[in-house]
């Protein structure tokens, strides 16, 4: 418990509220839905063969199939409406490759989402150090987005083929007794494939999530600044703001000095004051006027 409490105390769980972490939670959840709805599927359908001789009829032929949908290994016994043993028939098709590929991508997406989310919460500083973590995360996210596209399309096509191969009306055509007009063959119960349809939907939802996550991971890589021209390599960095105090903007303006421009100082002797002006003029003129009178 101490280790868990320490991890929780050191965790930065605010990242979960941001798109980068929140989308990872959605990817984790929908990956579980994808591989669980496909990998845990099992289905069954029923047919009936009513022979002219009622004692040889079989009104409840059950055929079960499941993941990974190797249908060519699924067999059932059908009456021949003749004396003797029933014939053993097999379904047609092997769709395990697309189904297993889809489930594998879902499982690895689940594991990577959980690992990436743990890195966001507990080692976010190391993740963002030198932008190596976001760049690796972006490449892996792009790869998973591509694989989700391929696997979802492949499994959608594989599911369509599974539906066709397990259609009771189609399987009835494999029974030799149903070719006889006096015998009556019909489907009793169709397989329920709603869970498989949901798995395909979850696959394309995961595709949207992983493609959408590319943008938020790309913003963490620092490539956006490089593309916009604002990224400055370490060997070409501009001088620090303090260096402008020595050269350039920090130099003294030649026109801002104390001697530049006309700035009279009225308190000095060379200046002009109202009282001194009248007093000096009176003292200088008084003797002159007196001498003239003499």
Automatic annotation (TrEMBL):
<dbReference type="Pfam" id="PF01284">
    <property type="entry name" value="MARVEL"/>
</dbReference>
<feature type="compositionally biased region" description="Polar residues">
    <location>
        <begin position="276"/>
        <end position="294"/>
    </location>
</feature>
<feature type="transmembrane region" description="Helical">
    <location>
        <begin position="136"/>
        <end position="157"/>
    </location>
</feature>
<dbReference type="InterPro" id="IPR001285">
    <property type="entry name" value="Synaptophysin/porin"/>
</dbReference>
<dbReference type="GO" id="GO:0030672">
    <property type="term" value="C:synaptic vesicle membrane"/>
</dbReference>
<comment type="similarity">
    <text>Belongs to the synaptophysin/synaptobrevin family.</text>
</comment>
<feature type="transmembrane region" description="Helical">
    <location>
        <begin position="25"/>
        <end position="44"/>
    </location>
</feature>
<keyword id="KW-0325">Glycoprotein</keyword>
<dbReference type="InterPro" id="IPR008253">
    <property type="entry name" value="Marvel"/>
</dbReference>
<feature type="transmembrane region" description="Helical">
    <location>
        <begin position="200"/>
        <end position="218"/>
    </location>
</feature>
<feature type="domain" description="MARVEL">
    <location>
        <begin position="15"/>
        <end position="222"/>
    </location>
</feature>
<keyword id="KW-0812">Transmembrane</keyword>
<feature type="region of interest" description="Disordered">
    <location>
        <begin position="237"/>
        <end position="294"/>
    </location>
</feature>
<keyword id="KW-0472">Membrane</keyword>
<protein>
    <submittedName>
        <fullName>Synaptophysin b</fullName>
    </submittedName>
</protein>
<feature type="transmembrane region" description="Helical">
    <location>
        <begin position="101"/>
        <end position="124"/>
    </location>
</feature>
<keyword id="KW-1133">Transmembrane helix</keyword>
<dbReference type="GO" id="GO:0048786">
    <property type="term" value="C:presynaptic active zone"/>
</dbReference>
């Amino acid at each position: 418990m101490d280790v868990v409490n320490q991890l929780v105390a050191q965790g930065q769980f605010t990242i979960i509220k941001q798109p980068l972490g929140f989308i990872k939670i959605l990817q984790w959840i929908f990956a579980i839905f994808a591989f669980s709805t496909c990998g845990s599927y099992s289905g069954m359908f029923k047919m009936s063969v009513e022979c002219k001789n009622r004692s040889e009829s079989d009104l409840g032929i059950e055929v079960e199939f499941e993941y990974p949908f190797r249908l060519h290994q699924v067999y059932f016994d059908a009456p021949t409406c003749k004396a003797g043993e029933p014939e053993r028939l097999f379904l047609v098709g092997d769709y395990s490759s697309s189904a297993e590929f889809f489930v594998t991508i879902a499982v690895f997406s689940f594991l990577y989402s959980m690992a990436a989310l743990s890195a966001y919460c507990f080692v976010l500083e190391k993740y963002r150090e030198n932008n190596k973590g976001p760049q690796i995360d972006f490449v892996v996210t792009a790869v998973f987005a591509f694989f989700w596209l391929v696997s979802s399309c492949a499994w959608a096509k594989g599911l369509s083929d599974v539906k066709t191969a397990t259609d009771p009306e189609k399987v009835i055509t494999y029974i030799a007794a149903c070719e006889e007009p006096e015998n009556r063959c019909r489907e009793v119960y169709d397989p329920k494939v709603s869970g498989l349809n949901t798995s395909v939907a979850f696959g394309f939802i995961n595709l949207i999530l992983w493609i959408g996550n590319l943008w938020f991971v790309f913003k963490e890589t620092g490539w956006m600044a490089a593309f916009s021209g604002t990224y400055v390599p370490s060997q070409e960095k501009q001088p620090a703001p303090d260096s402008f105090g020595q050269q350039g903007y920090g130099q003294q303006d030649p026109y801002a000095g104390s001697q530049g421009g006309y700035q009279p100082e009225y308190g000095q002797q060379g200046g002009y004051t109202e009282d001194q002006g009248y007093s000096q003029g009176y003292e200088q003129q008084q003797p002159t006027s007196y001498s003239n009178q003499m």
